[in-house]
Amino acid sequence: MSNLLIAAIISMILALTFYTIGVFAERKSGTLLNWHGIIFWLGFIFDTTGTTIMSKISGGGFSFNLHGVTGLIALLLMAFHAIWATVILVKKNKAAQENFHKFSLLVWLIWLVPFVIGLIIGMG
C-alpha cells in the first residue's frame, strides 16, 4: 500500500470522525457552539485533503460518475455548512444556533453516500 493511499485513507477517516462528532455533539447539546464550527471546518479540510490525494492516485480530476457527482455535492454542502455555521456563530443568532442541527444531520447523511460508495469501490 502506497504512502499516498495511506494518507488519503487516514484523511477520510479523520473527516468522518470530525464530522460525525460535530454533528452529533451539536445535536446532543441542542445548540451550535463555537467548537462545533471548528470541528465542521476540520471535517471539511480532511475530506478535501483525502479527496485531493485520491484524485492524484487515480490519475485525474473529476469523474462524471455516481461517486464523483455525489462526492462533489457532499463537498459543496460541507463547505456551505461550515460557512453557514461560522456566520451564525459570528452573528450570535440564538434561534439559528438552536435549529442548525436539523441541517447538520441532513448534510452528514448526504456526505455518507459518497463515503460509503468510496469504501465499496476501494474494496472491489
How does this structure look, described?
The chain is mainly alpha-helical. It has helices at residues 3-29, 34-58, 66-91, 94-123. Helix 1 packs antiparallel against helix 4 and helix 2 runs antiparallel to helix 3.
How much of the sequence lies in strands comes to under 5%
Overall strand count? 0
Sketch the topology as an H/E string, one letter per element.
Answer: HHHH
* Silhouette: elongated
**Which regions have little confidence, pLDDT < 50, spanning 5+ residues?**
none
Main sheet, how many strands, which sense, barrel?
none
Number of separate helices: 4
Question: How far is it from the N-terminal to the C-terminal residue, by CA?
Answer: 15 Å
Task: Please give the share of residues in helix.
Answer: over 70%
Question: Mind telling me the C-alpha Rg?
Answer: 15 Å
Structure class: mainly alpha
* Mean pLDDT across all amino acids: 90
List keywords for this structure.
single chain; 124 residues; mainly alpha; 4 helices; 87% helix; 0% strand
